[in-house]
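Researcher: Next entry in the queue.
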Amino acid sequence: MSTNLLSTSAAIGFGGVVQEYLWNWENQQLRVVYETLGKGSPLLLLPAFSTVSTRLEMGELARLLAPHFQVVAIDWPGFGQSSRPSLNYRPEIYQQFLEDFVKAIFNTPITVVAAGHAATYVLQLAVKQAAFSRIVLLAPTWRGPLPTMGASQQIAGIVRELVRSPILGQALYKLNTTQSFLSFMYRRHVFTDAAKITPSFIEKKWHTTQQPGARFASAAFVTGNLDAVHEQSDFLELVQSLTVPLMVVIGESSPPKSREEMNALVALPGVRSVVVPGSLGLHEEYPAVVLEAVQDFLFSPEN
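Model: Structure for this entry, 303 residues:
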């Protein structure tokens, strides 16, 4: 495993140094793109899993944090500018990737800020080993969209295999990643300010979904195959097992089921929390508000 610099023409970022981390999974090498900005103690930014997942959704937050930290933001394997092979994407891949990446890039416990579905993977690694010094979870989730909507594992599995299939799968995926559909989903539960969902914004998101192999990891997330836990009790048990400070940021307009899960999380003893404007995409829609909400937690020498 190694890291290489990427030229600015090879990758579009948020103003940092763009590199690739070459990572092996079951004898297959994956190219994982990450970006570093700023100086100071290290801080890892992990974007949410989604059809449009990319480190760029963390870009403005990274720029705001850069005067205080050396910020590292990644594109998860299967998403963004990282490799998107037709793997059977499942939790073991991301559990091992996160453990290997943190070990390879950092030599001390670090601060981590993780959005959405990245929450469970961060908590699992934090319980397993002393990888993190403090944790911020932004609109954390642990259950994928289809299971949240009530789909059984059998139905979700059928949908996943359909999307993975060569011809029908490509057609289904394209139908669910049209610009009009992406705009609808953003308005429904990602952003709260419709004025920010401009045609150029949606076009950039659409472009992310059209990369070769994009449907494989996306289908895994949507159908719950990236759910690292399957019960609320297991998720809460991870939090109760933590030995490092934890803060949770909740969007006041979060979807009802997601909000219920977040409320259960922040009701646990020792969990700091704050409610800010926004929904599941609060880190991208309101980065300055998020930073203001968590800065005391991040900057204090002790928690």
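Model: The radius of gyration is 18 Å.
Researcher: Noted, moving on.
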